[in-house]
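Hello,

Our lab assistant flagged a job as stuck in the queue for most of the afternoon. It eventually completed. Since we weren't sure the result was trustworthy after the delay, we are filing this so someone can double-check. Below is the sequence as submitted and the structure that was eventually returned. Let us know if re-running is recommended.
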Amino acid sequence: MKHHPLRLRGIFAAIVFASFGHAALSADLAPSASSPIATQSPWQVRLRALGVVTRDNGSVDGIPGSGLSYSDTMVPEADISYFFTDNISAELILGTTYANVHGEGSIAGLGEIGKTWLLPPTLTLQYHFTDFGAFQPYLGAGVNYTVFYNQSGKSADSLDVKNTFGVALQAGFDYMFDEHWGANLDVKKIFLCPDFDATVGGADVSGKAKLDPWLIGAGVTYRF
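-- returned structure --
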């Protein structure tokens, strides 16, 4: 049986129209590569084990050759970061530690002078390099304010280290396992030189404790 040419052409046109119409509809419904996706949360937290390594320097006013040294410690530390952009963030570093203060040089005979606890909240502004995939290094700089509390004398009758501001420099990296979890290594240098007063053998003395600690931390990162 023969088909009329006009009828064949009509059937062919209908098939072509239906095929292209279906393809166009599918393209409209499918997600476009250029469509916006949900942005990542700007909040991030880290937990670290932190080594606090102090500079053993300082002196007592009016006592030539006097020196001071301080114990190093290992403590837990937490920080909270907020990302303004993929590259720029602010980080608030929270933790507490202590320092045993020892006499050195001409006052080495005093041994352990006393002990103080430190609460050194530090706020840094960071730049994150984002061109290395899962490896995400950063640099930071900011300000520290250290509060000295729960202070006590040992060979000294009393010890009072003054609260003070300091400057902080920072370098580190995150290695992200996925969009949320990663490992972190971080190094900070805080320039911290508080004044102190003490009473030793009934005599009032004062001086400067040049702590200038390195804060070396390793831990985990979680990006919300």
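-- support follow-up --
The delay was a queue issue, not a problem with the job. The result is valid. The helical segments are 5-29. The two ends are 70 Å apart (CA to CA).
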